[in-house]
Specification:
Layout lengths: L1 H28 L5 H22 L8 H27 L4 H8 L2 H13 L5 H19 L10 H26 L7 H22 L9 H28 L2 H6 L4 H13 L5 H18 L7
Helix pairs in contact: 1-9, 1-11, 2-8, 2-9, 3-7, 3-8, 4-6, 4-7, 5-7, 6-12, 11-12
């Protein structure tokens, strides 16, 4: 189909860029606010912005408990739990490379459970691509791991929460598309997802961190990018992709995350770029191509 040859690759490339810019944004923002506080301000501001936009266009409406509840659950998982686990792990001192490697289990988890939840089975070629993609991530990340830094066991387990949350959220959203359930417009969906995330984060942000925030120009600029480019742009693109292609193909794009983030860190912070970063990116890209090249049929 022409649309799959034109719009899907463009959406995928934009998603990869915007999604992974969020890790760079977190590195800028965390010195001025804790994990829960940063995420609370981010999603409170996003909720207000979406509410104003929808009200201005007379589209701020109640879609019913079932649709709103689904959006809230998916949002709390994909936004709140996923991001909180990543940032908490970094705060525990776990090397970013380890976090990236653990989170990269997500495409494999999606492949394992997509058939049961969405009826879209994973082919042998896609499994080969998923495994190859993970190997690419391992090459890029493994060369950067400080194997002498044991850290805390708890800190190393936290990213598994991110894997479970984003996998479940993606499969729940894709299942809704496959079953032909009523899907709200993207902006209204993001509003209810954002609202649920802000409410879920309010308690730990106040109780654990007392909303302590340094309102520096750097923090404000970082928040603006995280709100509009990542929470609106990247997440919006992810839901658009899930509406058009199966969950395994969308999940495979996460393999490009660690190598692409390393490239961004090289540009933004002058971090050293290793040959293994480029090699890992190329291997992961081949794996993603294998996964993306298969047209899906309900299993």
């Amino acid at each position: 189909m022409p649309s799959l040859l034109t719009s899907i690759p463009a959406l995928a490339l934009a998603f990869v860029f915007l999604w992974n810019s969020g890790f760079i944004g977190a590195e800028y923002g965390l010195p001025d606010a804790g994990t829960f506080t940063l995420l609370f301000w981010r999603y409170t501001a996003l909720t207000l912005a979406l509410a104003l936009f929808l009200a201005w266009h007379r589209r701020l409406e109640w879609p019913g408990m079932e649709a709103a509840g689904h959006a809230a659950l998916v949002g709390a998982l994909a936004h709140g739990v996923w991001l909180a686990c990543v940032l908490l792990s970094l705060e525990q001192g776990v090397p970013a490379g380890i976090v990236a490697l653990v989170v990269a289990l997500q495409p494999l988890a999606t492949g394992a459970f997509s058939g049961r939840m969405t009826g879209e089975s994973t082919s042998a070629r896609q499994w080969a691509g998923l495994i190859l993609g993970f190997c690419g991530v391992a090459v890029a990340v493994g060369a950067r791991i400080d194997w002498n830094d044991s850290g805390s066991v708890f800190g190393y387990l936290i990213p598994l929460g991110s894997v479970a949350a984003i996998t479940l959220a993606s499969l729940l959203q894709r299942r809704r598309e496959v079953l032909g359930r009523v899907v709200m417009p993207l902006d209204l969906t993001l509003f209810y997802q954002s609202l649920a995330t802000a409410l879920a984060l309010a308690l730990p942000a106040v109780a654990v961190e007392q909303l302590a925030t340094h309102w520096t120009p750097r923090f404000l600029a970082t928040m603006a990018w995280l709100i509009f480019a990542v929470s609106l742009g990247a997440y919006g693109l992810m839901w658009l992709l899930l509406a058009r292609i199966d969950a395994v193909r969308v999940a495979s794009l996460f393999y490009l995350g660690p190598p692409v983030t390393m490239l961004m860190a090289w540009i933004a912070f002058g971090d050293r770029l290793l040959g293994t970063d480029i090699a890992g990116l190329m291997i992961a890209a081949v794996g993603v191509v294998l996964v993306q090249g298969v047209r899906r049929r309900p299993g």
